[in-house]
Design a protein that fits this description.
Layout (H helix, E strand, L loop, with lengths): L16 H19 L9 E6 L6 H13 L5 E6 L6 H5 L8 H4 L13 E2 L5 E4 L8 H6 L1 H12 L4 E6 L8 H8 L2 E7 L5 H10 L6 E6 L8 E2 L11
Parallel strand pairs: 1-5, 1-6, 2-4, 2-5, 6-7
Antiparallel strand pairs: 3-4, 7-8
Helix pairs in contact: 1-2
This protein binds adenosine-5'-triphosphate and magnesium ion.
Magnesium ion binds next to helix 2.
């Protein structure tokens, strides 16, 4: 079993009612996109991305996953696709454990059942990134990766997969992960991510898929606002 331990990644569990409320608010549009009446197939596979390192992708995955796992009918899986950094894997104490990139090296692999790890919270599990490898892009492009993630998302009704990813602007993996996702959350660090970089990230997105923006690190009253799916018609920055 994996635990968030003392890493500080999971703030929502601590006595911080504002933060847990922000993440609980953030989860509802994600849930609607994934399971609502108008949901598209695959929208329960969610990519969490951002322009650069340090914007708060891993932080958002951990806290949002926790908030989602409070839902009685859900089964939430955090999937660490940031193989270079592996911060989520490390935060859960799973360095060195076999993970996603090990499982999909073998095209005959049965799936991800062997590498999924339960956490201290009911309904929340994690798939560590696994052994460091230089060909993450090609592995993510493979049919094995697609089948494994789709299989995971469809294995049980009410499964939601949250994918932690490397920075879109410094790694090519983002476009491959985008193909695997049915819903995208873009983390924007207030006062840190430049408008130009936000635009560059938005330009890489598949406009057919629901997209939400997470404003992270904003002053307290606006911490982690969700700007809704239809950002193309609104001002977001
Ligand atoms: N809203 C927040 N409140 C408190 N700490 C935060 C917040 N957002 C991020 N952090 C902290 O800032 C640091 C960077 O965040 P995080 O690791 O999530 O960024 P990242 O986008 O995943 O970066 P990388 O691309 O390098 O993996 C971490 O120590 C994280 O715990
Ligand atoms: Mg990260």
């Amino acid at each position: 079993m994996a635990s968030f331990g003392e890493t500080g990644l999971l703030v929502a569990r601590d006595e911080d009612p504002n933060l847990i409320d922000e993440f609980r608010r953030l989860k509802n549009p994600v849930l609607q996109n994934a399971f609502g009446r108008l949901s598209a197939p695959g929208a329960n596979i969610v990519m969490v991305c951002s322009a650069l390192s340090g914007d708060g992708k891993t932080f958002s995955v951990a806290n949002l996953a926790y908030a989602l796992s409070l839902e009685r009918d859900l089964s939430v899986v955090m999937l660490d696709l940031d193989n270079a950094r592996g911060s989520l894997t490390a935060a859960m104490g799973l360095q060195g454990a076999p993970g996603f990139f090990d499982a999909i090296q073998d095209p005959d692999a049965a799936g991800l059942d062997d590498v999924i790890v339960r956490t201290e919270f009911d309904r929340l599990s994690v798939i560590p990134t696994g052994t460091k490898t230089s060909d993450t892009l090609e592995l993510l492009n493979s049919r094995t990766a697609r089948d494994a993630i789709t299989g995971l998302a469809n294995a049980k009704a009410g499964t939601l997969v949250l994918m932690d990813t490397p920075p879109v602007l410094s790694m090519p993996d983002g476009s491959a992960i985008m193909e695997l996702a049915g819903q995208v959350l873009v983390v924007v660090a207030a006062g840190q991510t430049s408008e130009g970089d936000v635009q560059k990230v938005l330009n890489t997105l598949d406009k057919e898929k629901p997209v939400g923006l997470v404003l992270n690190k904003a002053p307290r009253s606006r911490w982690l606002d969700y700007y809704g799916g239809d950002y193309y018609a609104s001002t977001y920055y």
